Amino acid sequence: MKKMWGGRFSKKTDLLTDDFNSSISFDQRLYKQDIFGSIAHARMLGKQNIIDPKESEIIIATLLDILADIDAGKIEFSVAMEDIHMNVEAILTERIGEVGKKLHTGRSRNDQVATDMRLYMKDICLETKNLICDLITTLLDIAMEHTNTIMPGYTHLQRAQPITLSHHLMAYVEMFKRDVIRMDQVFHMTDTLPLGSGALATTTYPLDRESVAKELGFAAVSLNSLDGVSDRDFCIDFLEAAAVFMMHLSRFSEEIILWCSSEFNFITLDDAFSTGSSIMPQKKNPDIAELVRGKTGRVYGDLLGLLTTMKGIPLAYNKDMQEDKEPVFDAYDTISICATTFAKMVKTMTVNKSVMKKAAAGGFSNATDAADWLVKHGVAFRDAHEIIGKLVFYALDQKKSLDDLTLEEYKTISPIFDETIYHAIDLNVCVNQRNIIGGPAEKQVIKAIAINREWLTKH
Ligand code: ARG
Fold this sequence. Notes:
Elements: H1 15-21, H2 24-27, H3 31-47, H4 53-71, H5 84-96, H6 109-145, E1 150-155, E2 158-164, H7 165-190, E3 192-193, H8 209-216, E4 220-221, H9 225-230, H10 233-259, E5 267-268, H11 287-310, H12 325-347, E6 350-351, H13 353-362, H14 367-376, H15 381-398, H16 407-413, H17 420-424, H18 427-432, H19 442-457
Parallel strand pairs: 3-4
Antiparallel strand pairs: 1-2, 5-6
Bound molecules: arginine (ARG).
């Protein structure tokens, strides 16, 4: 096949070079963006009389036909045509001859690919946002059912203070909300049209870049042609946002894995979202959560790979930048499947409420509340801490929880105690007394759920 850039060459390209050089195997994913970008360019060329307006119409109509044919799976792309840009142009020229050859007037693949990538990135930012919002909705629904489900809150993975499952889940809601905001920010960073930058120094044709930006839905036009064709920071921004989202999802996965172990037994995953072992008949494994945790590494790799690719490239375009696509595609595919599957897995899990509550009761998670009771009865907090420390030491020795100790036992440690201590260390009371914004009290969590449902309607 004759190369579009073949004029100054006397030899054919080695097949290995074709293979190595070509990106069509992966950048065909950009066919819609490429065609819409070309349509906007062709329309503008016609309006500006840079090409005959009638020819511009023929180009546009044929590009739409090609789009429909690609959609219908009727087109086979060619490796010799290297990438999606030259493939589409070759098909166009095959269909309408000389007129097709005019499309690339005042344009380079360098500004073309930067435009395609930005269009694609804007789409996936919105799609990712929607997926994360769906996950948030799922979590809010589960949280609403568990505003009374007591569980231990942890620090250092040691039982610390009682909270509710609802409060715990709502922590992830906050993280995911920030992930949504990050995707929004990437969208806005990406929302600038590079087309018109040409190969690196714009063009001598009187392009109307603003009209192209308008047609393609870009908020602005890039102000420097070298930057327009050669930065990929918007891809890196997306990968960074994806990596942070995966980090959050991975921490959550780790907790799911712990919680469904027999040691914790806080939850039971649905059979439909678990897997078995080929040798151990008793096994039911949390593979989904493990894979989400594992795939986090892969998305970090995508981010670090592209950062490293970009770090030493002189201005402006260099072929290294063709390496921007696979990490972005891979990260997008990974976060999409992870977010969707993870949401289904948590939606179908069973919560073992009594086990959770027992764990909260068994781990002295109400010790802070016992100390606070003393403070309310005139003891300085440091002294109260010391007294309850001794009480815990004693209870451990007796193999009892704070609730099981008799009032006499309390009194031997400190005479100040009276029976209202039992109310103060009741787990429900402990939780519901933490009744300030951000706290686990049922009232606060229900309020937070409502605030977040409202938030979702605006995102
Ligand atoms: N396939 C190329 C890429 O993805 C398109 C731009 C090629 N430009 C060039 N001057 N060779 O980066």
